[in-house]
Amino acid sequence: MLTLMEAVRSFDLYVAERLAESRVMGKPLKVLLRQGVTDARDTCHSAWTILKAHGPTHVQFWFIALAIGIAAGTAAVLFRLGIYAIQTTVYGTDDVLTLHSFAAGLAWYQILVIPICGGLIVGVILHRFTDDGRVRSVADVIEGAALSEGRVEVRRGLASALASMITLSTGGSTGREGPVVHLAAVISTGVCRWINASGITGRDLLGCAVAAAVSASFNAPIAGALFALEVVLRHFAVHAFAPIVIASAAGTVINRLVFGDVTEFTLTVQNALAFYVELPAFLILGFVCGLVAVALMKAIFWADDFGNYVQEETGIPRYLRPAIAGALLGGLAIWWPHIIGVGYETTSAALTGALLWHEAIVFVILKVVAVAITMGGRMGGGVFSPSLMVGALTGLAFGIIATSAFPTVSGGSTLYALAGMGAVAAAVLGAPISTTLIVFELTGDWQTGLAVMVAVSISTALSSRLVDRSFFLTQLERRNVHLAAGPQAYLLATFKVSSIMRKMDVPGAADEEECWRLVREGLYLDGNATLEQAMPIFERGSPRFIPIVTLGGEDSPPVLWGALFQVDALRAMNRALAATAAEEHS
């Protein structure tokens, strides 16, 4: 980049050249300067055309990543400030970080009515701006990275962000990271469309936006970058690392300009392992946390299925579903206001050992129920913050038992709370690396890494075998989007047979009589089918090709468009797998 002085010298040189040209050619200086402006405009237009046609260069990409990082970081901070502003307005508190303590002093009808009103607003927004009444979140971003060249739904994404903001502001018991990640993905999608980014570039820009959003939301630059690589892009390609780190750093700077360089949680005691013989206890804690994480995920899925069943059986309008969930949350919050909002106050109490054993157990159960109601009621929000709270409470309860049973060979119970927080969150997100780091960055405690890593590794290994690797991938699996099995499974759904088939009028086309014979036997595919439907047919019957037809109505005969040859399908699949491997190892 030119410095200011270099730019001034360049401009002076340009003017001097034009003056000399004016003397030689006899043209007025005004005409020559006007010609210079026209040339500069044409050059910029040409550069923009090249950028849109061929994508940005490495240097251009880094500057675009920086811009996306600033934009996504700003969006994350504004989202957080919006939650604070609405919470302050509806609950009347001056400090949203102690919301549940303040809410305990409110009248019971206020605690009940606020989530109902919030749910009703959320229901109207989602009914108006989405086709299924579902909030878009991290799972949709992962799907966009894998199947849509890094693009996500813009209109529905903006509506989901607004709905989640209202949910978190009016008593919804979820987290802010899910909507923030999708909101950042909306920003990157706009940029991708603007510059006509290719698949790899689009995915990398998506990773930049996600990294910046996570970093700005939690003041965690290292974890933000690794979250984008581990959870969203699901690879650690070297070519993506530099721009994602740039964006993550930009998001962190935005956070610190607004909130200062402070951690989300403040620990009052220094955690340390008493002896290395204490490590087996953290292995057991990891096992317990893995089961708790699975229970949390299963509860959310069960609540969603139950909500769908009730909605279908009773005919309740879908815009009332969040309001009903809000009524259930408000009823719980009358007696246990700890379930309101993100829950950082209760998490902090667990990390500092300010809760009793029975309180930790009760709050775990209540939080799981509250999160299931919120997400099953389609109110919006993410699962990361709830998993932190559930994990910290689980770890504290386990730690109280462990330190009481073996007081001479154990440290403090708060160390178990810290390890439990990471273990449950890592199991839910399916992201052991970034979650371990984000726990350290949220607390500022880097001295207890061994205990946290042991618990995280066991919980993740256990939970990944009881669900489809993570909460997000299991969500997608429930929608018949098979990303958990790897690219060899989900890439099949990206190829329509109509784009690979051989038409009937090309050399090497299938025999028409043989095609109609197969159609009469019921062996054919519609033109809108994908290789996901075609490959099992090849595997079962080993036909050389499958006819592609369009079935007419009762009075219209079917139309034969061509045939999908097995060799063509395998060739397309091989090219896609090779491209994926090249991207992941570049």
TrEMBL record:
Q: In which domain of life is the source organism classified?
A: Bacteria
Question: Any transmembrane segments, and where?
Answer: 61-86, 106-126, 205-229, 235-258, 279-303, 323-344, 356-377, 383-403, 415-440, 446-467
Q: Which GO terms of the molecular function aspect are on file?
A: chloride channel activity
Which keywords has UniProt assigned to this entry? Chloride, Chloride channel, Ion channel, Ion transport, Membrane, Transmembrane, Transmembrane helix, Transport
Keyword Cell wall biogenesis/degradation present in the record's keywords: the answer is no
| Any single Pfam family the record assigns to this protein | Voltage_CLC
Q: What membrane topology was assigned to this protein in its record? A: Multi-pass membrane protein
Q: Which InterPro entries match?
A: Cl-channel_core (IPR014743), ClC (IPR001807), ClC-type_chloride_channel (IPR050368)
The question of whether Ligase is a record keyword is answered with no
Q: What stretch or stretches form a coiled coil here? A: none
Might you report a single GO cellular component term? chloride channel complex
Q: Where in the cell is it found?
A: Membrane
Name the record gives this protein: Chloride channel protein, CIC family
Q: Which organism is it from?
A: Yoonia litorea
